[in-house]
Amino acid sequence: MSARPGLLAVWNDIAAEDEAEFNAWYVEEHVPERLDVPGILSARRYRDAAAPRSYAAIYDTASLAALSSPAYLERLANPTPRTQAIMPRFRNMTRAACEIAADFGALRAPGAVLACVELPAQPGDDALSILEANAGAGRVRLAIPDTKGTQVPNPEAKMRAAPDRLPPPFVLVEGHEEDAVRAAAAQIGMDLLAPGPARLYRLILARGG
Question: Per-residue b/e over 67-94, b at no fewer than 16 CB within 10 Å?
Fold first, then answer.
């Protein structure tokens, strides 16, 4: 049986005075560097629709193993000077290496809008029918954070001012129509007893597959 696909999900805030440098670093250095790692297939960046200096990044991977591979660990162990300069300025960092436990919907190209629904606990098999029923917005994925995969030796994390937060299992709802994505995320959150409202993001960068 082949391994499940994976993803690395990152959320963080940045101060107004650091935002231009932060975005330039991502586009010019960080995304190309990560896409050079075998098994990292694509990178997408988003800005929070309600909080302009809050960002998300999603890296799709062939499997969770790509995020503990020698090539990836080599990147983490050798941060560039620009990375060393920007990492201490990340705020409210959430980061998770995940397995994709379910993937519904026809959309595979980057959607213009992304919603994230954090769940209260590991969802059971009965949750899958709820996710599938709401995939008309474009695409719905269930991501299960992996503690071991997230906590591989990571010198970059030590540069940040506070420890990274590890999220609970979460659902990504992606599509081109904001109202449809918002409605699907709200329905999933209600049906699966999410503890808070979904956060909505707008796509600002897509690279790779």
Answer: bbbeebbebbeebeeebeebbebbeebb
